[in-house]
Amino acid sequence: MAIGSNLPWFHWNYASITANAPQASGVYAIFNGQNWIYVGESGDIRARLLQHLNGDIPCIIQNAPTGFQFELVAGQPQRVARQNQLIVALNPICNQRLG
């Protein structure tokens, strides 16, 4: 399973992030009803999503996110590679363009 397919998605709010996002290594995608907003990677998905919720990247908040998805991916090189694949595939509006 992969982000954007049949993976479950979760609401974009503090209670949902703390209840559903793992304190584990992986990649995540933030979206609203129209667009993929941001794709990122972290050794602690929950902590990173909470940083975004608190406005660390203004572009994310400006695009009114409604949900997130995540994939567990072990190891930093693998996370970065998967993040880059997802950025190319989903073309999120707040990420730097690759390629």
Q: What structural keywords apply?
A:
99 residues, GIY-YIG endonuclease, 4-stranded antiparallel sheet
Q: What would you say about this model in short?
A:
With 99 residues, this protein is an alpha+beta fold.
Helix content: 25-40%
First-last Cα distance: 24 Å
Q: List the total number of helices.
A: 4
Write down how many β-strands occur, each being a DSSP E stretch of 2 or more residues.
4
Query: What spatial order of strands do you see in the largest sheet?
Result: 1-4-2-3
Q: Class, according to the CATH hierarchy? A: Alpha Beta
SS class:
alpha+beta
SSE pattern:
EHEEHHEH
Percentage of β-strand residues: 15-25%
Q: Give the biggest sheet.
A: 4 strands, antiparallel
Which stretches of 5+ consecutive residues score pLDDT under 50? none
How would you sum up this structure, described in words?
- With 99 residues, the chain is of the alpha+beta class.
- It has a single domain, classed as GIY-YIG endonuclease.
- Strands 1-4-2-3 form a 4-stranded antiparallel sheet.
- A hairpin with a 4-residue loop joins β2 and β3.
- It starts with 9 loop residues before the first strand and ends in a 9-residue tail after the last helix.
- The mean pLDDT is 94.
